[in-house]
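Now for a specimen:

…
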Amino acid sequence: MGYLSERLYEFELPFVVALVLTAVLITGLTVWLVMKKTVIRRKDEELERARENAGLAVTARNRFLANISHELLNPISTIVGMNEMAMRENAEDVPKPYYTSMMNYCFDIRDSSEQLISLINNLLYMSDIESGRVRTEEQEYDTREMLRSVLKKIRSRCDDKGLSFEVAADEALPGRMYGDTGKLRQILTNLLTNAVKYTEVGGIVFSVSVTERENALCKLRFSVKDTGHGIKSDEIGKIFKAYESLDEKKDSRRGIGLGLDISRRFAELMGGTLTCESEYGKGSEFILTITQKIADQTPAGDLNADEQPAARGRYVPQFIAPDADILVVDSSARSVEIIRKLLRETNVFVSSASRIADGLEKIKDTRFNVMLIDQVQLDTDEDEIIGRIRETDPLLPVYIMTSSSVTGETDYVSKGYTGYISKPVDGVILETIIFRHIPEQMRQAPDIAGEKQVKDV
């Protein structure tokens, strides 16, 4: 009997152990399932809420930046517009020393305004980039005119600082290409502006060459080389990072903002690269490589031709059209007044409406040549508004005045608008757009007789 009990004990012990282990496993599995349905699920929900809150925060920040940029650009637009009107004033019988001083003040105001606008736009660009809303906006462009428009301002800034400015262009550079001319212009402007800013002695060399060509594609190499302070090798990595600056103890004269980071991101967005080579104390070279489509193989020609500044005379508009009428929809009376003054020499009549509803009523009674709408008036009903306009006047050219860097021409055109005008509004661009939509029989040639007579005293 004792032997049998021992055998049963030996058999039951492993069974009991197995039973206990099974119970433990079942209990553990049950606990895990409960945790998965409660604790883990709660964590997932918290993470999801955090992601949603982060998205809302980014949206709120972007909306704030867009709103504040609009509020900032409104007074800047007034400054730019009034300054342009001052530069257009008739200087007849004005003493030359006084006139020269006033014009120099106007040039300083213009340059400072452009720098301030650039800073605001850079903040918007970074916001758009970080939110993933930036995309390429490709269009055909005149290579020579695009480059000369960028180089013209840099040339005058070099003259102001007593720096030399050389331009070297490849003879094989195509005359017309297809690409994102807006972003390309922004990159080149940033590079050239920085070169002038950080160069005190010597000069700037800008060059562009065709490094590869295959069928309708060509690879371009843009170079901006200066004789400025240069950058130490261990600091080069910082210059393409937003919100960082170089070590002030090592180089108290060089601070880096957003321009280069934006330029690098734009280059990468277009499938290109932006790099820097520098020798501390001797200067830097920034190299942009990018591929563009060839629209016309005819050579672009000499970028230096006809660059001598013309003598400034009486402002002459592109056209005169006293029978033309445009409608401006803008809640800012100052903005409307600026447009009126910019178009004063054209004799175009400028009607206005402070609300989109009033503008829609006006186009029912009057045949306008062009309609300009401030972007803020669109709110979130862009499609509905253009639809209502087209119901009344299917052929009316409608342009959006905007300070936003997100929406490009393609987006507006796809919705039914004719295009957009950047704010602050450029008087020459405004005239060009209106000229495009005024019938030939309405246009008159401007009176070019007589020039500003500035007295020598």
Remarks:
- The chain has three domains: 13-114, 135-299, 325-442.
- DSSP finds ten helices and 14 strands in the chain.
